[in-house]
Amino acid sequence: MLEPRVHTFNMVLCLSRAMDLVSPGLVNHHYRVAYIAHSLATEMGLPPEQRSDLLLAGALHDIGALSLQERLAALAFEADYDSLDPHARLGALLVGGFTPFSGPASLIRHHHLRWDHRREQVPLGSYVLHLADRVAVMTRWNAPILNQVPGILDRVRSEAGRMFSPQLVDVFRGLAERESFWLDMASRSLDSILGELAHLGTMEMDIDQIIDLSLLFSKIIDFRSPFTSTHSRGVAALAEAITELFSFSTSEVQLMKAAGYLHDLGKLAVPSSILDKPGRLTSEEWAVIRTHTYHTFHTLQTIEALRPMSEWAAFHHERIDGRGYPFHVRRKDLPLRSRIMAVADVFTALTEDRPYRKALPSGEVIAILRRMVAEGALDERVVEEVANRYEQLDTARAQAQQSAAWEYRELGEASRAQTALAKETSADM
Ligand SMILES: [Fe+2]
Ligand SMILES: [Fe+2]
Ligand SMILES: [Fe+2]
């Protein structure tokens, strides 16, 4: 198998769309901000590198708002800075964890900073992103966009020198004259419009970077709930280690690790109140949960070079007997790596604490896996390999989950420390 090469923008854009699946109120929010920020940057004549940083920052800017409440709060035009700053801070920490994205991370850090509260060290791009975000939150998706332009323009103009830089407001006024700008932003085909812009960039990722970016996304998926905070890391480590026991090439094993990081990507569409629920789920909540692998599949399908991976990632709730969900794929159509992912997922779920029960010991885990084989859910060959190497595999899983737990704590602490610091500095001013 050839090593896949993936266009960075394409992967970011499809992951960014997954973030907006969580609520119909967020229709294309990230795409719209990316488009407006990039348009402003082009209108300003910024160099290509800064334009692409703004496109990426726009596509990822609210990544640190892990709960739906936070996401919706950020949609209020006059939201209070102190309540919005935590998600900007966490977003910058998360995005900055992927080295090639240090530029976008620095823009995300202050994307809610008003112009009249400006600080010296904050890059111009942050103010561009702020304006783009506020314009996006003012647009209503269920009314004709051109009709909304005069109102939006008035509001932006009235904030010149207050919320927004007067120069940026001038740039925006130029942009706002073109109906095409608004029609693009409100278009149902905004994804292909952004895709075209993305093609202008040249950033391509090799397998190591694909893994790193997938790891970044696994954190967004997992850190939304303390109960799942290390789940994808455990699944990825097991998926990699089990795949190594079969005869796959190194790059195939590596891609399987990335698939493990992304297997629950569609959970971004599930509100954290459901993920966090300690008791039994209602049938309505369960109906929401059951959509997650569908979204994982379709999100990953849009990246051509990663198409095979979408099956390994998204078929983890399918069963050998065809009674899984959501595709009801049967034995002959269920790839070995999808079967491995299913075992890795159950294994990890059983060995971690859940809101409704504690982690189980090895004997019980193996017994449950074997029972699931007998019931037609899991693949026998995979489960027997796992049973034979239980210690080795469980160590790999536990180490990966321990380091994820450590990062989860560190990130929480770093984020809290910065809040305290920001409060002190603003008290000094
Ligand atoms: Fe935000
Ligand atoms: Fe936003
Ligand atoms: Fe799942």
What is the count of structural domains? 2
What name is given to the CATH topology of the largest domain? Hypothetical protein af1432
Sum up the overall morphology in one term: elongated
Helix content: 55-70%
The largest β sheet comes out as: 2 strands, antiparallel
In the CATH scheme, the class of the largest domain would be Mainly Alpha
Could you name the CATH homologous superfamily of the largest domain? Hypothetical protein af1432
Number of helices: 22
Name the features.
single chain, 429 residues, mainly alpha, Hypothetical protein af1432, 2 domains, two-stranded antiparallel sheet, 2 strands, 1% strand, elongated, disordered C terminus, binds fe (ii) ion
Per-chain topology:
Layout: E1 6-7, H1 8-19, H2 29-43, H3 48-60, H4 68-73, H5 81-96, H6 102-109, H7 124-138, H8 145-158, H9 166-176, H10 179-186, H11 190-200, E2 204-205, H12 207-222, H13 231-245, H14 250-262, H15 272-275, H16 283-289, H17 292-301, H18 307-314, H19 336-351, H20 362-374, H21 380-388, H22 390-428
Antiparallel strand pairs: 1-2
Helix pairs in contact: 1-17, 2-3, 2-7, 2-10, 3-6, 3-7, 5-6, 5-22, 6-7, 8-9, 12-14, 13-14, 13-19, 13-22, 14-18, 17-18, 18-19, 20-21
